[in-house]
Amino acid sequence: MRAPSNELPIVLKQASVVFGGVTILNDISLTFAAGAPTMLIGPNGAGKTTLLRLLMGLIRPSRGSLTWGGRNGITPRRCAIVFQRPAMLRRSAAGNIRYALAAAGVPRAECASRCAQLLELVGLADLADRPARKLSGGEQQRLALARALAKDPSVLFLDEPTASLDPAATKAIEDLVRAVAARGIKVVMSTHDLGEARRLAGDVVLLHRGRVIEHTPSSSFFTAPRTDEAKKFVAGELLI
Prior knowledge:
Oligomer: single chain
Strand order of the largest sheet: 6-7-8-3-9-10
């Protein structure tokens, strides 16, 4: 699987998102470069999902700018996103992946081998013929990851992919995130789990009330947070 970084860096400069007069993201300036996964953390309603949608190009900034690989106003082609509750097509696990491969323009002659590779990567080879909607929650998340990877992205956005999963299913997703990152794919992932952020992050973005509170390497964020909000969040205190 190729993973060129032609969409990177992704750069936000003083970007805001406003819906119905309500500011969801406020004056965000961030750069997402190649490397280890970036973890987005923060309390519910902090703006994590909106930020992922913005980075993916699903919404546009109301103010400020967003560029992918130095290009402005062009929706990225080599990005994919997996939402917290991905919808499964009424097909088998393999059928879901074949559909994604066809949508990505993969030649029909390559689809069978690519489908098998993706099923193997996410640990679903033995469940290829099972209806996708009868898979467990963790299996559906892995299938959603396989569908996203069918696009051969250089950047993969994940919106709390382990929410509500048991420890075994969570570990399987985290192992997949590591495997994807090891292939050179940039992962930007939101999580409510600080332990997960510690295990996976190269750098951490703490959001609160639509603003970036802190953006630092994971090691320094968890050992020496700079802001009072970050100190409280790492200590498990509520941010108000």
